[in-house]
Amino acid sequence: MPYPIRLKIIMLFILQHKRFNTNDRGEVNVEFEWMGPIQVVLRRWWLVVIPVVIVALFSLPTLLMLGPTATGGFSTTIRYTAAQALEAIPDRDGDFQDVWLASELTVNAFSEWIRSSQFAGEVRAMLAAEGVEIDPGAINFMTDNDRSVGVIAITGPDAMDAMQLEQVALAAIRVLQTRAQVYFPQLGDQPARVTLLDQPIVTAIPPALPNRLRPLLQVAIALIAGIGLAFLVEYLDPILRRREQLEGLNLRVIAIIPREG
Predict the structure, then answer these.
(1) What DSSP line would sit under 169-229, residue for residue?
(2) What is the value of pTM for the model shown?
(3) Can you give the pLDDT at residue 11?
(4) What's the 3-state SS for 99-128?
């Protein structure tokens, strides 16, 4: 075999799963064979497994935390109605429709107050007076109302447990019942009458979908990376393993030594 062709063959030995063909001018053509990807993965299985095992070890604590009892925090909902104290209403002539309208306007005003930082500060002060230290800035107060019925939705961060959120809800109720006259002079320096329509019940929030799928996605990416690593090592392997690779070089196979077993 001429020296240039031998040199080309030696340089191309690093390409695994290639088909080597020589043309009429003695030049070597290389074509990649995709017939044995399963054999590649089975031969380099340890390269596939190692990234998956490493990522799984780091993801296992997260998977355990996201079990059936895992939560994405807690929330509670409070429904209430409010109105100005009757003794604070000046004497006037009118029907009871005015009372219902006044209640609706009171709940509307309370909704804006609950969204403000002043309300969160009042809740914090109420909790601090009871010896409870909770940052209300980490708590989300959402509110809405349907005429004279108001709704407060309270959600806490993941680090806050159900008992702490219940304390926040009870403090918010006491603030509504005792501190509204400080912010609304229309109440005549008397607290508004706030009546709960149902007691706050704290419920767990399921973890966000991306958080639940993140460990599985990490393992899947590790698996893909492991398969890619196996193909890369196979691609750089200089060993010819199949008879067809030799025959592609126009070399005659004299004998085949079978593998033991």
Answers:
(1) HHHHHHHHHHSHHHH-GGGTTS--EEEEEE----EEPPPPHHHHHHHHHHHHHHHHHHHHH
(2) 0.56
(3) 37
(4) HHHHHHHHHHHHHHHHCCHHHHHHHHHHHH
CA atoms within a 13 Å half-sphere pointing along the CA-CB vector of 45? 4
Cα separation, 158 vs 129, in Å, equals 24
Q: What is the pLDDT, as a whole number, of residue 35?
A: 47
Q: Tell me how crowded residue 190 is: count the other CB atoms within 10 A of its CB.
A: 14
Give the tens place of pLDDT for each residue, 100-124. 888 899 999 999 999 998 998 899 8
In CATH, which of 2.60.40, 3.30.70, 2.20.110, 3.30.1490 is domain 74-204? 3.30.70
Terminal Cα-to-Cα distance of the chain (whole angstroms): 36
What residue spans define the domains of the chain? 3-66+209-247, 74-204
- Identify the sign of the CA torsion 44, 46, 52, 58: negative
Helix (H, G, I), strand (E, B), or coil: what is residue 243?
A: helix
The amino acid that residue 47 corresponds to is: L
CA distance readout (Å), 254 to 8, 243, 247, 257: 23, 11, 11, 10
The pLDDT, as a whole number, for residue 21 is 52
pLDDT at 53 over 70: yes
Cβ–Cβ < 8 Å for 180, 113: yes
Amino acid letter for position 176? L
Whether residue 151 contacts residue 200, with contact meaning beta carbons closer than 8 Å, is answered with no
What average pLDDT is seen over the chain?
A: 76
Q: Residue range 134-152: average pLDDT?
A: 84
* Residue 88 pLDDT class (50, 70, 90 cuts): low
